[in-house]
Design goal:
Layout lengths: L28 E7 L5 E4 L8 E6 L8 E8 L2 E6 L5 E4 L10 E4 L9 E5 L5 E5 L5 E4 L10 E4 L9 E5 L10 E2 L7 E5 L2 E6 L1 E2 L2 E5 L5 E5 L10 H4 L7 E10 L2 E8 L7 E8 L8 E9 L11 E4 L5 E6 L5 E6 L6 E9 L5 E9 L2 E8 L11 E7 L20 E4 L5 E10 L3 E8 L5 E8 L1 E2 L5 E2 L1
Length: 459
């Protein structure tokens, strides 16, 4: 069994079971819910479990009376269940009145206990009750400890906006075993079975039947290649496929991939589709986008992105003119509009992964040079934006189009040049790195992806 040299705090692995649903804008999890106006947290009085127990605001302390298990219940609605009291936030006595009280009551799935969550595109959200149609607010705009939580018509006030602060901050690098040799991995899972596709002849792939911990090789997806590849990339050997990306959209699984050669932007992105990620027979959907010396950009490293409105986009690009993004037609899953520029960086940039989390789009990229074993200089950097088309700013406010990008992972003495990353369900990051203890072999790494109190990604 392989383990990672970083310090680890072991705990039970929770495998994400949901997908990025059209209406799910907050990940299931445990949060402190903090008001924008007062900067105080929702709290159940004394952590009580009686029906009803009042809900107030108080200075953030991180106790269980301020922690809420947020669970997506479908159709755009969530329950908010307190960890201390065990009850759900609800509108008391089924009231539809302005100023009606919000209290805790044992969860029963009633409409008065369900809340829709709308992003305000600033890291904050409004919570609208399903029964009353009113939003949760701090009563009379108070900034005092002990102020009551009530409902009111939505008037756009800061006292009606809330931030979800995650409490999952434990570093956990998964202990992997089996055949973990890989490069540019992408992963998708159906319950506890995980499928990985990666760079290699005919699209290499693996499977894990225990939630992504132990891996077994499968046969190449396209062992004979496709005849049209050399039409657009004549120097490709007919089998070499780069950096696939797999994601489910609607009832289909889509696998984008690239055909190219080193140092050239004569490249092409192709598409396969299937109703089952385990299938050995994916349908060829042909060419998606191509590039050459006249385009400026390089059509490799595709990334299918589904935005907050359930619209598909394709990110791609490498070196040359950097990272690009274009809308996809939801029927053909091919480009249908403008090509936007997201990031540029001297010295190399590629391997895009974009994820949406709590009101922001996060752009992860690999910068530096890959594919040189222990001499590789790959590292993972990131920025975020309120719009999928950018601008993406790093933690210092530097635009990634101007070379910005906060450091996420630069490797260590054991694992050199991490990159080719893929974000899974906003909770997991998959990538390769070169094993300095094994002649620089490229291997699979998987870690929990956490988010700090300011909404930035971290291990």
């Amino acid at each position: 069994m392989k383990t990672f040299p970083w310090t680890m705090a072991f705990f039970a692995i929770v495998i994400p079971t949901g997908s990025w649903a059209a209406n799910q804008v907050i990940d299931d999890g445990i949060y402190i819910i903090q008001n924008r106006n007062s900067q105080k947290a929702l709290e159940v009085v004394n952590g009580g479990a009686d029906n009803p127990t009042n809900i107030i605001q108080a200075n953030v302390t991180g106790t269980n009376r301020q922690k809420w298990r947020v669970t997506y219940r479908g159709d755009g609605y969530y329950s908010l269940v307190n960890l201390a009291g065990g009850g759900s936030a609800e509108v008391y006595n089924w009231s539809a009145d302005n100023g009606a009280n919000i209290s805790e009551w044992s969860y029963a799935g009633r409409d008065s206990q369900l809340w829709s969550v709308q992003s305000q595109h600033n890291g904050y959200f409004t919570l609208t009750n399903k029964f009353s149609g009113k939003v949760m607010e701090v009563y009379e705009r108070s900034t005092s400890n002990g102020a009551n939580i009530s409902q009111w018509e939505d008037n756009g006030g800061n006292w009606q906006q809330w931030q979800f602060r995650t409490q999952n901050t434990t570093t956990y690098h998964w202990p992997l075993s089996g055949d973990i040799g890989t490069h540019d991995p992408t992963v998708i899972h159906v319950n506890n079975t995980w499928y990985e596709f990666n760079t290699g002849n005919g699209i290499s792939r693996k499977v894990s039947y225990n939630g992504g911990l132990s891996w077994t090789n499968l046969s190449a997806l396209l062992p004979n290649g496709l005849s049209w590849w050399t039409t657009y990339v004549p120097d490709n050997n007919g089998l070499d496929v780069w950096a696939p990306d797999v994601r489910k959209f609607g009832d289909q699984y889509y696998l984008y991939y690239a055909i190219s050669t080193f140092g050239s932007n004569t490249s092409a992105i192709g598409l396969l589709s299937s109703s089952d990620p385990a299938s050995d027979h994916w349908s060829d959907q042909g060419l998606v986008i191509r590039s050459n010396s006249n385009t400026g950009y390089n059509a490799i490293d595709p990334e299918l992105v589904i935005d907050e409105n359930n619209k598909p986009w394709l990110a791609f690009g490498s070196w040359f003119d950097g990272i690009k993004l274009t809308r996809l037609n939801a029927t053909t899953m091919k480009p249908s509009g403008t090509i936007y520029s997201l990031a540029r960086r001297s010295g190399g940039i590629e391997a895009t992964s974009i994820t949406y989390h709590n009101g922001y789009y996060y752009l992860f990229v690999s910068v530096g040079r890959c594919c040189q074993g222990v001499n590789s200089t790959y590292q993972i950097r990131y920025g975020r934006a309120t719009s999928i088309t950018g601008p993406y700013l790093d933690k210092d406010g530097v635009d990634m189009l101007n070379g910005g990008g906060s450091l996420f992972d630069s490797g260590n003495d054991h694992w050199v040049g991490p990159g080719g990353e893929d974000i899974v369900d906003n909770h997991t990051i998959v990538r390769h790195a070169y094993d300095a203890t094994d002649n620089g072999a490229s291997k699979l790494l998987i870690s929990d992806l956490n988010w700090d109190d300011n909404g930035w990604p971290t291990y």
